[in-house]
Amino acid sequence: MEKITIGGKRVVRQAYGFDDVSIVPSNVTLDPEDADASVEIAGFKFEAPFMASAMDGVVDVRFAIEMGKLGGLAVLNLHGLQTKFDDPAGVLDEIAQKSPEEVTAFIQKAYREPIKEELVGKRVEEIKKGGVICSVSSIPQDAERFGALAAEAGVDIFVVQSTVTSTKHVSSRAKSFDIASFCKSYKKPVIVGNCVTYQVSMDLMEAGVAGILVGVGPGAACTTRGVLGIGVPQMTATADAAAARDDFEKKTGKRVAVITDGGMRVGGDICKAIAAGADAVMIGSPFARAEEAPGRGYHWGMATSHAALPRGTRVRVGVHGPLKNILLGPSLVDDGSQNLLGSIKNAMGLCGTKTLRDFQNVEMVISPSFMTEGKLLQSAQRVGMGR
């Protein structure tokens, strides 16, 4: 790999985001209807390789059930409004009504409400009654306590999520969460995130996780990159994590799911994430546009509520139709934000690949003009790709 210096002796490497690369079509094509976009995550098969982010503007019980019925998986945030309020509708209404100047302080106040432990099990039971696979998310500090409550209620997949995850956290104030010990003792599969490097991905896999979430700061409602300057563009982060997965699988025979988390706006971004090596994707803002989403047309970051240093903001995404249209189509818009599964299957067809694992090996090129080449009229008229 070519070494690049940014001055003095500081050596860096080039990293790439979704707009920096493109997929090269194959000399053999396939009928998209013959493409199989199903994926196995944590021992469960999903017809659509999509996870909905554990964010309060995206997932509640109703949304989780609908997502499951459509072939994907939604993750409910155990540190959010759904476990702080028996009926969070009023708080969600106020978040949608506050001005940009008022909303962060209001979110901070609302999230100071203590979690009601009885609601952890109740929410899991409500999702399970819908007849779908149930997944919930906790921060590492509460994973053991909430994990036990969720398992007792019948959760299927438990997610441990923080801004940046490692297996070697050092703290002088509190006991560190032992990921390996938790994965070994917990009776359900565990997905952990978030990470962006080969080494941390490998460390987490060796600790026994069933899946890893890849991405720091790319989400539409996340401000981590601006506040902390931390993160790696998603194409490079995904490819590095996928390389760790492949090496781990060769060594152990076990395949750990790599899930690209955040930064994907349209179907083309999702296709690129999978081409870079992702087994599935976790999405927030595109799903927050669904009629079933609890955010009332708004979406906010998981760390927006931080008492001292918010690393998220509320963004307006609007309501663009039912979740079925966004996930499975038919698309009623021209910008690639609906029929996301159709985007994957059509891309697979144009590359002549029958499975997602085949699609992970397609040719790609660096293409900095890819999103703007020939699109002057769309940009000027703010239609299609120019929105």
End-to-end distance: 36 Å
Strand order of the largest sheet: 6-7-8-9-10-11-12-13
CATH class: Alpha Beta
What's the tally of helices? 15
Percent of residues in beta strands: 15-25%
Rg, rounded, reads 20 Å
Q: How many structural domains does the protein architecture include?
A: 1
Characteristics:
TIM Barrel; eight-stranded parallel beta barrel; 387 residues; globular; single chain; two-stranded antiparallel sheet; alpha/beta; 15 helices
List the helices and strands and how they pair.
Blueprint: E1 4-7, E2 10-12, E3 21-23, E4 39-41, E5 44-46, E6 50-52, H1 61-69, E7 73-77, H2 89-97, H3 100-111, H4 117-129, E8 135-138, H5 143-153, E9 157-161, H6 179-185, E10 190-195, H7 198-206, E11 211-214, H8 224-228, H9 234-252, E12 257-261, H10 267-275, E13 280-283, H11 285-288, E14 298-300, E15 314-316, H12 323-328, H13 340-350, H14 356-359, E16 364-366, H15 376-381
Parallel strand pairs: 6-7, 6-13, 7-8, 8-9, 9-10, 10-11, 11-12, 12-13
Antiparallel strand pairs: 1-2, 3-16, 4-5, 14-15
